[in-house]
Design brief:
The protein is 38% helix and 15% strand. It has 1062 residues and is of the alpha/beta class. It folds into 5 domains: 177 residues, no CATH class; 311 residues, 3-Layer(aba) Sandwich (Rossmann fold); 80 residues, no CATH class; 204 residues, Rossmann fold (3-Layer(aba) Sandwich), CATH 3.40.50; 88 residues, no CATH class. The strands form 11 sheets. Strands 3, 4, 5, 6, 7, 10 and 11 form a 7-stranded antiparallel beta sheet that branches. The protein has a 7-stranded parallel beta sheet with strand order 17-18-14-19-20-13-23, sandwiched between helices. A 6-stranded parallel beta sheet has the order 30-29-31-32-26-33, with helices on both faces. The N and C termini lie far apart (84 Å).
């Protein structure tokens, strides 16, 4: 059963009937997996459930009062689908988690009719069954493999023998015993302890229709099987490209060809990195009917890459005067979906010029508002998510009652046209009606694009000669480019690579915004679908809708479950639902490594091409099937075991470990990356988030050294205060099992103590010293705690909460820190980051191996790569350099028990008279330092002075990066000096909260500084005493100097402070 499809001369896929059958078999297999039902996790809460004693439930009849509650919101007396929990875990806020569940239909007379399906109902949620990717919750019932085997063995006959509702309850009880070894009543009795409260005597009943989540996908799969119109799904399944290494993208004239194709950019700040550019050019090399997969490890700028692709697509369509591209972003978890929205949700700078902002106003109460739109994306949530998204995002629904209606009202359009015309006049210097402005914009776009392509072709053919200089001069004088601050940079380019980068920040940026305004004009002159016809879903109505809606916002973001709903077409009652195959110009999938292939594959049929971004080295999907059951479902769809094992599983096309949509997409495309053992897909290599010492662990652990760390060690706000990656041994470390989870109280105590000891200095560094309020960290957003086990997360939270009740006076720690900060497993921090991450390994000294950590390096990868500046691993002494994961930890981390600012550092001043027992970095100096003239005035300021003595100072931004290490090792800024003294206990009680601003004022009064806040200068006396400066450079190249106190000055300052003279 071959699955390889062949392209002929770059044209459509050519398939034999046998190959079509193979694709259809795979589609039938995916559909059957979804029909089995996902093993849903169900929470009973918000007063939407009723309760009934177990003994009464067995009768299959609900009391009249409870029936009324469940029918209260129904418009008719048709049966209500319900779910019943026969074993429940008590949660906070009066909620309960169902552990053993049964589907049923509730009739108006109160009769319950059980829905019994093999391996589907009754069921145990996948999140409560141990599997390779799910473990560690406090209450787990057993193994996922045992769950599936029970239906092949002991329970197989019982399913067919259920006649009464009591029989269905008995079947659920039998399932619980097969999986856990206990009946629900026994499980509740034996496993209830402390805060873990289980209940099997009271059953919970709630309206719940399980098929809702996958119904739309199943209807789409049915359409594909019925019509055999497979679209891009065929490419996902069969591939067909000969592998090409990504390095070949720029071979020969490849760089010029792709640079000519790349016409848009959403940012004028930084150009694409080398690997981002390769990924964009790889996408541009691909075309219709292609799936382009990009592996994006943590912190490698996948958002920037996606923005570049969308900007180019939009611009190229506008250049050709085509209808706007329809782009759909999807994933299966809400974090990934909101990541896509955020990537396109605010594309306007804080201080834009006349061109680079949206010329359409926001809609407010049916009319045009004062503020401009900022987003290019609209969110299409499910009904349950809509209220939470209201006010945060532009919204649309499948009835066209969201943004389409709001922004097409006559009142809005009248004001929007006036606003648009005024913005266009400001840019062009003259105006016209909307059709005229649209023509002017397109002419300007073509003019700028011609100039861009001329520059590229000339540089490629002749280099930076006089002709190139003339083109640069023409660009600088072009009226459409007058507002670009970096246009002069074109003349500094010496080769094609440099020019391609500079175009990202100049001409491509202008082209993108001209394209945005071109489509805004299209929106303003559109003939909208009449209000009374918008409910229609005919082919002609939907075609008009999508062409118009994409002109306003080209990106529509939704979950994979929602996509088919938006692209279904009109059908008569009781007829199969048809779909608009190939309607989407580009499908973007984010976090595809977490997407189950069966869920993510169906929407591909609706797209002409796909860009799939993810990382198979991070969190995996939560598979609902074990391997054996997965093979059996495939066999039922006509797929032989050999085909499943040799073709489908290696290509990510199965529905159990280790498949994912990311894996299948990578294998269906043409690209390879890496040298020694090339991997499928394109690869983003430059890493920007973590300190190099931190990301080095991930690089060795999973990426084979392919990551290229871009952050300098001196970029960290904690540089000079502490080592970036630490292993902190916990004396007496001992873990205990909590169900199938684990906890370690000594580690939790150690983490809580670390937070108490170090929070104040972190607050000073990440909040107090930051001038820009938008860049200040939130008090609960500085530290995150990650652990492999949820029981340990709860223990850490409880211990920290208890310790925070006895905070010392003057502590900066918020009283609610334990509840407000993120403390959890890697899943809670996927896609997020924190300046500081504390990792609890949990396995104690008595544990021979850290089995779960060693077996799941992907979870460790997620945990480690959340830390920007500091990662502290808490673990038993036995963990150090023991086991596959911690041997790598020992390679990259420093073993220490020092707090921030107190750790020993190499003595930089040997021979300069350091006291033998003085803390590292405190130099010996005569007690009385020379005093200079007092400063005339003092106000709050940072440790910054001008780049020229006596000149005006430019305040250093909080995120500015030093150009090089300090010329004098061991020198401290005043903030670091305070941290050192605080940790040593030197600070007087009245100075417990002293900030850099106050100490600067005292140093000026003592004669070491002069000038004024914002323009401090070191006095001659200060220089003699050892006060110096270090030149640093911002990302934009602007230089400034930071005042530092060398080791020979520190001892004297300490003695002055002790004597009350500072």
């Amino acid at each position: 059963m071959p699955l390889d499809h062949v392209r002929q001369n770059g044209g459509p896929l050519s398939m034999t009937p046998q190959q079509e059958l193979s694709d259809l078999n795979v589609i039938e297999y995916f559909a059957r997996v979804l029909r089995r039902g996902q093993l849903d996790e169900v929470t009973f809460g918000e007063d939407k459930f009723v309760t009934i004693p177990r003994a009464h439930l067995r009768t299959g009849q609900l009391p009249p009062d409870e029936v009324e509650k469940l029918f209260a919101r129904r418009r008719d007396d048709s049966p209500v689908p319900v779910v019943i929990s026969l074993l429940s875990l008590q949660l906070s806020g009066g909620r309960h988690a169902g552990l053993v569940l049964l589907s049923a239909l509730l009739r108006r007379d109160g009769q319950l009719e059980a829905v019994v399906e093999t391996a589907s109902s009754p069921w145990i949620p996948a999140e409560r069954l141990n599997s390779p990717q799910v473990t560690g919750r406090q209450v787990m019932l057993g193994e996922q493999e045992t769950f599936w085997k029970s239906f092949h063995g002991p329970l197989s006959a019982e399913v067919s023998q259920v006649e009464s509702f009591a029989d269905a309850v008995d079947l659920a009880d039998a399932l619980c015993k097969e999986v856990s070894g206990l009946t629900p009543e026994e499980f509740a009795e034996q496993r209830t302890s402390g805060r873990t409260v289980l209940d099997a005597q009271t059953c919970y009943v709630m309206e719940f229709e399980r098929i809702n989540a996958t119904r739309n996908l199943l209807e789409l799969y049915d359409h594909l099987l019925r019509t055999q119109e497979l679209g891009l799904v065929s490419q996902l399944i069969g591939g067909g490209h000969s592998p090409v290494h990504e390095r070949d993208i720029h071979r020969e004239d490849g760089l010029l060809a792709r640079a000519l194709d790349a016409s848009g950019s959403m940012s004028d700040g930084f150009p694409l990195t080398a690997s981002q550019r390769r990924a964009v050019h790889g996408f541009l090399t691909d075309g219709a009917n292609d799936v382009t997969a990009v592996s994006g490890p943590p912190g490698t700028g996948k958002t920037t890459m996606l923005q570049a692709v969308v900007a180019t697509l939009l611009t190229n369509y506008a250049l050709r005067e085509q209808a706007p591209p329809l782009i759909v972003g999807m994933s299966t978890n809400n974090q990934a979906v909101t990541n896509i929205i955020d990537a396109f949700g605010s594309v306007t700078k804080k201080s834009p010029g006349r061109l680079d902002h949206r010329w359409l106003p926001v809609a407010e109460e049916g009319a045009a508002g004062e503020a401009a739109m900022t987003s290019l994306a609209v969110y299409c949530p499910s009904g349950t998510k809509r209220q939470a998204a209201q006010g945060r995002y532009l919204l649309e629904d499948h009835r066209k009652e969201g943004i389409y209606s709001e922004y097409s009202s006559p009142e809005y359009l009248s004001g929007a046209r006036d606003c648009y015309a005024a913005k266009a006049f400001s840019y062009f210097g003259h105006t016209s009606d909307i059709p005229g402005l649209k023509k002017m914009i397109h002419e300007a776009l073509v003019e700028v694009d011609d100039l861009r392509t001329e520059l590229l072709r000339h540089m490629a053919s002749h280099g930076p000669d006089a002709g190139y200089s003339a083109l640069c001069a023409a660009a600088a004088e072009n009226p459409h480019l007058k507002g670009l601050s970096r246009i002069e940079g074109l003349s500094q380019c010496t080769d094609l690579v440099g020019l391609d980068k500079e175009l990202d920040r100049t001409l491509r940026y202008a082209e993108f915004w001209l394209a945005v305004h071109y489509y805004e004009a299209c929106w303003l002159e559109a003939e909208f679908i009449p209000v009374d016809e918008r409910w229609k879903r005919t082919q002609s109505v939907m075609e008009a809708y999508w062409q118009q809606a994409a002109a306003l916002t080209p990106c529509f973001v939704m979950t994979a479950y929602q996509v088919p709903r938006y692209f279904s077409l009109y059908t008569k009652k009781d007829e199969p639902v048809p779909f608009d195959i190939g309607r989407i110009d580009l499908m973007i999938v984010d976090e595809a490594g977490q997407v189950d292939t069966a869920v993510g594959a169906a929407p591909f049929a609706l797209a002409q091409r796909a860009l799939v971004v993810g990382d198979t080295q991070q969190l995996a999907p939560v598979w609902s099937l074990d391997v054996q059951t997965d093979q059996e479902v495939a066999a039922s769809a006509g797929i032989e075991l050999a085909v499943w094992e040799e073709l489908l599983q290696p290509h990510g096309l199965t529905c159990s470990q280790p498949s994912s949509l990311m894996a299948s997409a990578a294998h269906s495309g043409r690209w390879l990356h890496g040298d020694d053992a090339p991997r499928r897909g394109l690869f983003l290599a430059e890493h920007f988030r973590c300190h190099p010492s931190i990301i080095g662990l991930c690089n060795d652990l999973l990426y084979g050294g392919l990551l290229n760390p871009q952050r300098k060690e001196t970029d960290s706000k904690l540089h000079g205060l502490t080592e970036a990656f630490q292993f902190r041994p916990v004396p007496g470390s001992s873990d205990t099992q909590v169900g199938t989870s684990r906890k370690n109280v000594p580690e939790a105590e150690a983490i809580a103590q670390w937070v108490i000891d170090n929070y104040d200095i972190l607050h000073d560094v990440y909040i107090d010293q930051i001038d820009d309020p938008n860049k200040k960290a939130k008090p609960d957003g500085i530290i995150g705690v990650v652990t492999p086990f949820s029981a340990q997360a709860r223990t850490v939270r409880e211990v920290l909460q208890k310790r925070l009740r006895d905070l010392p006076s003057g502590s900066l720690i918020p009283a609610n820190l334990a509840s407000a900060m993120t403390i959890g497993t890697a899943h809670q921090l996927q896609g997020a980051e924190r300046p500081v991450i504390l990792f609890s390994a949990v396995y104690g000294d008595a544990a021979g191996e850290a089995g779960f950590i060693d077996a799941n390096p992907e979870l460790l990868n997620v945990a480690v790569s959340r830390a920007k500046d500091l990662l502290v691993m808490f673990g038993a002494e036995r963990r150090w350099n023991h086991g596959s994961a911690f041997r790598l930890v020992a390679k990259h981390a420093s073993k220490t028990d020092a707090n921030i600012g107190s750790g020993p550092v190499p003595d930089p001043s040997e021979g300069l008279g350091l006291a033998a027992n003085a803390p590292a970095g405190l130099g010996v100096q005569p007690p009385a330092l020379p005093a200079g003239p007092p400063a005339d005035s003092v106000r709050a300021d940072d440790d910054v002075r001008s780049t020229q003595r006596g000149g005006a100072s430019r305040l250093a931004p909080a995120d500015a990066a030093p150009a090089s290490p300090s010329e004098v090792e061991g020198a401290l800024t005043v903030s670091q000096l305070i941290a050192r003294w605080r940790d040593m206990g030197e600070l007087r009680p009245e100075d417990s909260k002293i900030k850099a601003t106050e100490l600067n004022a005292r140093l000026a009064k003592a004669g070491f500084l002069e000038g004024e806040p914002g323009a401090w200068r070191v006095t001659m006396a200060g220089e003699l005493a050892g006060v110096g400066t270090e030149r640093r450079t911002k990302a934009d190249g602007t230089s400034y100097e930071v005042i530092q106190y060398e080791p020979r000055a520190l001892k004297g300052l300490q003695e002055m402070y002790r004597e009350g003279r500072l």
